[in-house]
Amino acid sequence: MLTLEAHVVALPMRVPFRGVTTREAMLIRTDRGWGEFAPFVEYADAEAALWLAAGLDHDWPAPVRLHVPVNATVPAVPASQVAEVLARFPGCTTAKVKVAQAGQSLRDDVDRVAAVRELVPNVRVDANAAWTVDEAVTAITALGELEYVEQPCASVDDLAAVRRRVSTRIAADESIRKATDPLLVARKQAADVVVLKVAPLGGVRAALRVAEQCGLPVVVSSALDTSIGIRAGVALAAALPELPFACGLATTSLMAADVVVDSLDGRGGSIPVRDVVPDPSLLARYAAPREREQWWRDRLARVLELLP
Ligand SMILES: [Mg+2]
What we know:
The chain is an alpha/beta fold. It contains 11 helices and 12 strands. Helix 1 crosses helix 11, helix 6 packs parallel to helix 8 and helix 8 packs parallel to helix 9. It binds magnesium ion.
């Protein structure tokens, strides 16, 4: 494979996410198109190889829909800031609310969710594996009607235990990092929904195979991608035979910058299936500092060696 161009950007975030205030990403242009290579910096090379395979993959199946419905995302902000956050997602009728943040109480979560429910009809929450089984059952009961609860606990067995004790749907996100994980989740009856991301699964077709094999409804999500990475998620969501829930692909709204002029941002509640290319002036404006650029180029060189 001939790498024609690689650009490293450091994009400012509007709200800290996973503890980061800047999202670094490498945009790679080959003779087949633009792709994104942005495994989180702490990921080892072997895991990053799947992200690279996804970034270099342009062999996407034909879409079966022209728009992908998307959800708003509300970080663990005070209830008083909910309206301001939701204003960045005009037209979204589903919101995912972060809960169980360290240093906060269940009362904070209940208040935040109530504030979201006043403005958006479909509410789901994401606990990012922070609860024990008992805490999850207590919290889910206190939070009232939800579309689903994403990753209430860390282990697949604990997800299954929570699922047996509540009527709310359970979604598995962190439990699914590699292609065999959704099958385990399905076999243990640990979730009603699986959250799939294109990059960690190694590409759109690989993710579609996972969806098919596990047989559960899929919510396609992003990993804080630029619009180039979002485009691959849109390709997956657009190719799924069924798409009963809004996807977590409206995440460019959480960033204060993007690499394309007309972001795939979900205004209006959905993302159209359309191609995007980076804008040279944006790549230049958000270019990462030289030592970070070199770090990414070194990483790319190492990870290219790991590709099959
Ligand atoms: Mg999640």
